[in-house]
Structure formats: structure tokens, C-alpha cells
């Protein structure tokens, strides 16, 4: 039976959400402004509501945690303090007690809020562990990760994540043996670290501003040499930033080169994220620059583990807009219902590579995968974009089959994959590709028409880029695209664009010119194009093989943002293609709502052809006959007509 929208609802992932306005009743007693205030969770909830999120989630009501669970990580003394601090009998002493602690306030609502925060994280964690929910987000406050066994601190009363983690460890019937805690709050999760310091069942990972021990909570506990102790040695991982301003590229580099390799080895049964959003761009405390897109990528990469069993518990995050937008981006990832769209700055800081290398070194005896040295080309950080003139004919031949000088290849890879693992290609399994190249699933949902006017008008030739293989006029076999499904449709169309032939020789075809299409239309002109309807993912693989000679990338050459700007501006030149002759992706309009894209030279190249700086040249015989074969094979033109068409294109002045 065909699936309809009703059955689809059941396929959807069950994502738990908890929000309770009673957690807004914890605020500063004197009414003083404070970054950790009730508007934080209110802003999140309002944002999710206006995006229609709660209706698509399992919304649960918060319950206070029972003391027995809190007692697994906090002292009796601590429990008594938090339980009683809001009661009447503390009215006169409350503020004086708070002042004894580091960055703590209490009011009449604090106890209940703290019990609800811990109870909420407990509740969803148990449900995710049981499989009643696939994943969950607990929108809670006060936060928890700074709270230690016997000490509230850093706006944190109960250590919510630690309480929930202990529940998993203690309820053996849940079958959870290995827990990964990812603490991406901009501050070090000192409390959580201490609670599982010697426990190999809990892998605690924290990435935070450290600045050599001067950033809050300002101690050496957040240093990368703090790796755990006894049986827990190697199961505590700190990534301490040397400076602020870290952004998506820095975080994703740490994911790709520290967290994800270790997670693959550790194979957690569940992941709990201490999800602070104070590393978000615009946060007044964090001074970092992670975008909602960055957070969604960080989360997406983690969803490949533990069958997607992920619990997110709110920690910090003090810019209400960044906070709400980042949480929304994450919940959308948990719902798995939308491709992730966005862009990041390209390169991590030099200091980021230094930190990553230090962390890998420190932990390599526990996680052998970290012993591999990072390729030096990867670490060569903010390399400026490589400038290579379009007249460099040694770089690329007619169809762009890349003639690789090894320096050039390194340069291309630096640009193609600024912050991801190298050597992810057709040989890797899909899982690895999905983890390291999540752009694939994003781009596999969008179709484009790839419009060809050269030798790819021959279907058998074009299919090599999809299915793999080699036909004559190819210098080596193609690997094909990762998704080998054939084009959904093939369509011929004429366009009012000028076809012409340029360059005096190419590696593939020898002497003679190859075809270009004038990027601008002109009503006098007429060109025949063969359109292949493929996915944007396949389009990227075609570009990689045809123009870069590689499938070795973990970021796309041409993504949804590029598509969007191509459709707005009519043409764009992705950086990685800039060295080639066919580096201009031209939007040729749409067919049935699907964008038509072709590859050619730029307008300024056309000017160079006109001025004689670049050479116009009739095609070699073999190349011309490939075009004729395409046109005739499609029964579009007779052989005579096809020959006349090519003769005209190669003799008429530009
Ligand atoms: N100079 C969380 O994000 N800052 N806590 C104190 C003293 C405290 C942050 C500054 C920051 C605590 C959960
Ligand atoms: Zn924080």
C-alpha cells in the first residue's frame, strides 16, 4: 500500500520535550538582572511553539526528582540545603548562604525549580533508555554541570545530568552499560567530571574555554591532562580552548578528530548532552561564535551512535535569540525532518589544531585511533584561497579530468575539506560517509537538471559519472557517484545561448577545441542541451569526478546555499572549481520546478576568448563526433544537421 501522511506520522521519531513554567520561579531575590533568568527557557519555549514543534513531539510534564536519585551524586548536606533553602525559615538567611557560594543565588522558587530540573532530565533519560522515546530535550533551569557533590556553583544547584547518568548506571534492568556525556557548554563541566572521574562506564567529554585556567570556573580541572583515574583513566576528555571566538569550524574539527573517533571506539549505549548554548554567537558570557547550523551538525554527527538515543539537557546560554534558535535547530535534528542548511567559516584557528593535537597525544594510549598523525595539510589552518589563473592549461583538460600535481591536490583538499577527516571516499562504508559527510543525506532530497552540451550529451559517457565505468574519450575509469541510481529523467532542450569551441588542445582529446556555452543568453543563438535529472548529492559527485578528479570530500562543492545563490545571481563559481575551465555553474531556469544547472566558463573568460587572449579553436575530429553521437543518438538531429550545428558553432565569430 502507498504510504500516506497518516502512516508517515508513525514513522517519525518520538522526541520527548519537557518544559514547566515552575522552573521560571527561580530568580534573583533582589530583582537584580542576571544572565541565568527565567526568560531563557521562556524564550526557548516560545520559539519552539511558533515553529510548531511541540505538536510534533511528546510533551511531558515535569516531576520533581526523588531524593534517592539525587543522593547518588550529592551529599546529604547538599540535598538538605537545596531542599530547604526556599522554605520560610530560611527567609532571613537565604542571601547570606548564597553569598558563601561561587555564582549562586536563591529565592523562594529555587528548591522546586532545582528538583524539577533534575526530575525532568531523569524522566526523559529513563524513557529514552527504555526506548519509549527515541530522544529528548529537557528545557530546564537552573542548570547543573558546575554543581559538585557538596557544592552548588556557577548558577547550578543539582547536577541534573549526573543525577540522570547515575540512574542509568543503577537501574541495571535498563541494559545501559556505557554512557557518553558530551558537555558542549562553553564552561568546563567540573561537577560532572568529578562525579565520574574513576568510572569507565561513563565517558565524559567537555569542550570549553579554558585560557590556561583563567576562564570560569578557572581551575586546572578543565585541562586536557585531566583524563580520569584508576579504571576511569582515559574516560575523561577535556578540550580546552586557548582563546575565545571559537566557532563552527573549531568545534567540528574537534568532533571529527577527537570526539567522533573516540565515540566509534567506545560505542555508547546512550548519549547525554550537557547542552549549554553559551558558546553560541552573540552570547554575552561565552564570547564564541557557534551558529545554530554548527550546533545542528554537532548533534547530527552524534545521532549516528547509540541508535540515536540522545538526551539533551539545557545548561547555559544567555543570549535569548541565539539560545532559542540553537535549541530549535537541535530539536529539528532530533525530529530528523529537515535538511540542515547553513554555512560556517572555513577554518579552525591555529590554536585549535594545537589543542586537538595535544588532546590526541594525551589520550592516544587509551584510544589507539588517535595515534595517527593528523595530515599536515589539514593543520595548515587559514590557508588563503589558492589563486590559479584560468589559462593554466596543465591543470585540467577538456572535461576537467584533473591532472594532479601532488601540491595541487593538497591545495584542493584543503579547500574542499577544511575541517573533516581525509580519505573518506567510495571505499568507505555508508555509515562512515553518513557520519563524516552528512551533507549527502541533506542533498539527496533535492533534484536538479544537470544540463550538458559537450561530450556528456552521450548518455553512456555521462552514466560513467553516476554508475562508474569508462568509455572511449575517458582517460581512466570513473568511480561513479555514491548513489548509483540512474537519472530519474533525461530531457533535451534548446537554449538561446551561444555554443563555441575554445583551447587548442586537451589531454583527453588531443589537438582541437572543446565546447563552451556563453553564460549569457542571446535570442540569435540556439544550443542543444541534454538534461539529466539527478540529485544534488549526485551532482556534487559528478563535479568531483569531472572537475576535481576526486570523491574524497566531506563537504559538498555545491550545496543548497550555492544552489540558492546560483538561482538568484544566475551563476556562481565555487572556490574549489576556480582553477578549472568549467568553473562557472550557470542556472538556466527550471523545468517542472526543478532548477537546470550547467557548467561553463565565466563571462570574463568569454571576453578573453573574444580578445584572443584565450584561443578559439575548432574541435578535434574525435570530440566532434562524440557530440554528433550524442545529438544523433537522441534522435534529435540527423547526422547532417548535427555536423552543420557543430560547424557553425566552431566557425562563427564570438
Ligand atoms: N567573574 C553556566 O553556564 N561567571 N554557568 C562568574 C565571575 C559564572 C556559568 C564570573 C558563569 C557560570 C551553567
Ligand atoms: Zn556555561
TrEMBL record:
Location in the cell reads: Nucleus
**Annotated transmembrane regions:** none
Cofactor(s) it depends on: Zn(2+)
- Please give the SUPFAM superfamilies that the UniProt record associates with this protein: Arginase/deacetylase
GO molecular function list: histone deacetylase activity, hydrolytic mechanism; metal ion binding
The reactions it catalyses are: N(6)-acetyl-L-lysyl-[histone] + H2O = L-lysyl-[histone] + acetate
Broad EC category = hydrolase
For this protein, what is the EC number? Answer: 3.5.1.98
Domain called Histone deacetylase: residue spans? 34-334
Record GO biological process: epigenetic regulation of gene expression; regulation of developmental process
What keyword terms does UniProt attach to this protein? Chromatin regulator, Hydrolase, Metal-binding, Nucleus, Repressor, Transcription, Transcription regulation, Zinc
**An example Gene Ontology CC term for this record:** histone deacetylase complex
| Family according to the record | Belongs to the histone deacetylase family. HD type 2 subfamily.
What's the name of the protein? histone deacetylase
Q: Which organism is it from?
A: Actinidia chinensis var. chinensis
Amino acid at each position: 500500500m502507498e504510504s500516506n501522511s497518516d502512516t508517515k506520522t508513525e514513522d517519525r521519531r518520538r522526541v520527548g520535550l519537557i518544559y514547566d513554567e515552575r522552573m521560571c520561579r527561580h530568580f534573583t531575590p533582589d530583582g537584580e538582572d542576571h544572565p541565568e533568568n527565567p526568560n531563557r527557557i521562556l524564550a526557548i519555549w516560545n520559539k519552539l511553539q511558533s515553529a510548531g514543534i511541540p505538536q510534533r513531539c511528546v510533551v511531558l510534564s515535569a516531576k520533581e526528582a526523588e531524593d534517592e536519585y539525587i543522593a547518588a551524586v550529592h551529599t546529604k548536606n547538599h540535598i538538605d540545603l537545596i531542599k530547604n533553602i526556599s522554605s520560610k525559615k530560611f527567609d532571613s538567611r537565604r542571601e547570606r548562604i548564597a553569598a558563601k557560594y561561587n555564582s549562586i543565588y536563591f529565592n523562594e522558587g529555587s528548591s522546586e525549580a532545582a528538583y524539577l530540573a533534575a526530575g525532568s532530565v531523569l524522566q526523559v533519560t529513563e524513557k529514552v533508555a527504555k526506548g519509549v522515546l527515541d530522544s529528548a530535550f529537557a528545557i530546564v533551569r537552573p542548570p547543573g554541570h558546575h554543581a559538585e557533590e557538596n557544592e552548588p556553583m556557577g548558577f547550578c544547584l543539582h547536577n541534573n545530568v549526573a543525577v540522570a547518568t547515575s540512574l542509568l548506571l543503577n537501574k541495571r534492568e535498563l541494559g545501559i552499560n556505557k554512557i557518553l556525556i558530551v558537555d558542549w557548554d562553553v564552561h568546563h563541566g567540573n561537577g560532572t567530571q568529578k562525579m565520574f572521574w574513576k568510572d569507565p562506564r561513563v565517558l565524559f567529554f567537555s569542550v570549553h574555554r579554558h585560557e590556561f585556567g583563567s576562564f570560569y570556573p578557572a581551575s586546572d580541572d578543565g585541562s586536557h591532562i585531566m583524563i580520569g583515574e584508576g579504571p576511569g583513566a582515559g574516560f575523561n576528555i577535556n578540550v580546552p580552548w586557548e582563546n575565545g571566538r571559537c566557532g563552527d569550524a573549531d568545534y567540528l574539527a574537534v568532533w571529527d578528530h577527537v570526539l567522533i573517533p573516540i565515540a566509534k571506539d567506545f560505542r555508547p549505549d546512550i548519549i547525554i548532552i550537557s547542552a549549554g548554548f553559551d558558546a553560541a554567537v552573540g552570547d554575552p558570557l561565552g564570547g564564541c561564535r557557534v551558529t545554530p547550523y554548527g550546533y545542528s551538525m554537532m548533534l547530527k554527527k552524534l545521532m549516528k551512535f547509540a541508535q540515536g538515543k540522545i538526551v539533551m539537557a539545557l545548561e547555559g546560554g544567555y543570549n535569548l535569540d541565539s539560545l532559542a534558535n540553537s535549541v530549535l535547530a537541535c530539536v529539528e535534528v532530533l525530529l530528523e525532518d529537515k535538511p540542515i542548511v547553513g554555512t560556517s567559516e572555513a577554518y579552525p584557528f591555529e590554536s585549535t589544531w594545537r589543542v586537538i593535537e595535544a588532546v590526541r597525544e594525551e589520550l592516544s594510549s587509551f584510544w589507539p585511533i588517535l595515534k595517527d598523525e593528523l595530515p599536515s595539510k589539514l593543520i595548515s589552518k587559514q590557508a588563503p584561497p589558492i589563486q590559479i589563473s584560468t589559462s593554466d592549461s596543465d591543470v585540467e583538460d577538456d572535461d576537467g579530468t584533473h591532472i594532479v600535481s601532488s601540491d595541487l591536490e593538497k591545495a584542493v583538499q584543503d579547500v574542499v575539506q577544511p575541517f573533516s577527516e581525509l580519505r573518506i571516499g567510495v571505499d568507505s562504508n555508508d555509515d562512515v560517509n553518513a557520519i563524516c559527510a552528512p551533507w549527502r543525506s541533506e542533498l539527496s532530497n533535492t533534484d536538479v537538471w544537470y544540463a550538458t552540451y559537450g561530450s556528456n550529451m552521450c548518455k553512456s559517457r555521462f552514466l560513467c559519472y553516476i554508475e562508474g565505468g569508462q568509455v572511449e574519450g575517458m582517460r581512466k575509469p570513473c568511480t561513479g557517484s555514491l548513489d548509483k541510481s540512474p537519472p530519474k529523467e533525461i530531457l533535451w532542450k534548446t537554449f538561446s545561448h551561444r555554443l563555441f569551441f575554445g583551447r587548442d588542445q586537451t589531454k583527453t582529446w588531443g589537438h582541437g577545441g572543446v565546447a563552451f556555452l556563453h553564460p549569457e543568453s542571446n535570442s540569435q543563438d540556439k544550443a542543444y542541451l541534454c538534461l539529466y535529472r539527478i540529485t544534488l548529492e549526485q551532482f556534487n559527485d559528478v563535479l568531483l569526478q569531472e572537475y576535481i578528479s576526486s570523491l574524497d570530500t566531506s563537504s559538498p562543492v555545491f550545496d543548497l546555499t550555492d544552489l540558492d545563490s546560483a538561482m538568484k545571481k544566475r551563476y556562481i563559481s565555487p572556490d574549489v572549481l576556480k582553477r578549472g575551465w568549467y568553473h562557472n555553474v550557470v542556472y538556466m531556469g527550471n523545468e517542472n520546478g526543478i532548477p537546470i544547472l550547467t557548467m561553463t566558463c565565466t563571462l570574463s573568460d568569454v571576453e578573453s576568448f573574444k580578445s584572443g587572449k584565450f584561443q578559439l579553436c575548432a574541435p578535434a575530429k574525435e570530440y566532434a563526433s562524440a557530440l554528433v553521437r550524442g545529438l544523433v543518438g537522441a534522435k534529435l538531429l540527423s547526422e547532417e544537421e548535427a555536423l552543420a550545428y557543430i560547424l557553425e558553432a566552431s566557425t562563427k565569430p564570438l
